[in-house]
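Lay summary

Proteins are chains of building blocks that fold into shapes. Our project writes down both the chain and a compact code for its shape. Here are two examples, one after the other.
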Amino acid sequence: MRDDPSSGPRSAGRDPHQEADAAGPEHERSPALTPARRRMLQRRRRALTVLGAGTLCAFVVSLAVGHLGAGGSQAPTTDAPPPVATQTTAWDGSTRADPDPSAGESTTPPGSPEGTTSAAAHGPPAPGDTPEPQLPATLPDSGTGTTQVLAVPGPDSTRSGRTIRYSVEAEGGLDVPVDHFAAHVHRVLTDPRGWEAVDGVHFVNVSPQQRAQGASADVRIILGSPAYVDRNCLPLRTMGQLSCHAGGRVLLNLERWAHGAGTYGDDVAGYREYLVNHEVGHALGHSHRSCPGPGRPAPVMVQQTKSLYGCTPWGWPTPPSSR
């Protein structure tokens, strides 16, 4: 029977655990231990120890089995990991996942828009083509009056068609890198935008060795001084500034070759493409044409050195949409 806390002072002989027992019924007082009871408790303690050890082992085994079932201890694989998409930042500041390059997507940026006269519009240089040379500040008005045949880099195109044999030549004493001129002419004539695609012709180069052995050329493409071009273009008047086609010779004025024309602005390379294609067009029998309308690309046979007549510059026989 529990003591009443209000029954006065506690007796000095009371069990010291009695106050704690007053906290609630969960704490029961232990019965007195007899020798028989002590032996029974020891046997129970040993049984519980063995049972606990067995339970622990079973728990560890179950964890291991579960881990294996989840693939946590698989053998290493030799397969490559799947590609991980990377992110790049767009111009507007947003991010987008880049495609996996192995999926066949091209990582090459798109080319220049149709009809531009940027460097990309001129196409890749042919094998052996040289970078733009540094020309002297002052060019000669006249040279030696005789020409030499130049070698061109690379082979002829593989297109079929009516054969047009051509040589590339330069007047002596021009003080410019004529190998660059030869490479440029070769690149223009073999370009898929050129006359081979339009007229069904096939340009075949006549080398210096072949010319020395007496081989002839249907068209001689010559870089000459203003005086040389003026003299050999007669009765046409080139006035030291213009180029012409005369008697199977394409006579390109050094002044125009070096400096281009105002109609092309700073795009000297684009003007050179036009210059070769325009005069070779005359050699193939093409006459001058007019601008088809304001803002449209000029046909290559428009006299673009003089004016564009409302058109935009374009140096190829094929229209921009055919590139």
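And here is the second example, written the same way.
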Amino acid sequence: MSVSVTFEPSGINGLVAQGTYLIDAAKRMGAPLGHGCLSGKSDCPACVVSVKSGDELLSAPTAIEEKLLGLSQPGNTLRMLCQTKIEGHGEIVLMVSSFKPKESQSNSELAADIERKFAELGLKDKIAALLKFEAITMTEALDAAMQKPLAAGTKVLDSIMARAKANKSDSKANP
């Protein structure tokens, strides 16, 4: 069964399968999050959203979320997309946070910071991070590849129709 997920304020929504992490749903739908994971270790607030409705459909908060977001406080509706899995069926509405990396950092400085953090990881964490990035890349590539057959099929059919018209007009001209 599918679950309806809406990202506000953009209004982007779509259906995803139960068991999907919210970060994967956001990527598949193209929700404009405006930021990404800064550390690869799920220890930053880069993917924080506020759950407007459907909190009961989501996995229990992880220890990381409780530590970073103070989820033990009553009324706290914040969740991390990378930590939260959809476990029930229904409708979920999320408000994207306004978190952004420091504006003073250029892309090259941010890349250097990420490289430095990656270099500090142990071997197991490095392998896990690389596998995670590979899975994300593969998912995005497969999504793009699934869109291509329709375009290619349309071009093939157009070519066949053009040849058929050309053959038909040739046969009329040369009986």
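What can we say about the second shape? Residues 99-104 have pLDDT under 50 and may be disordered.
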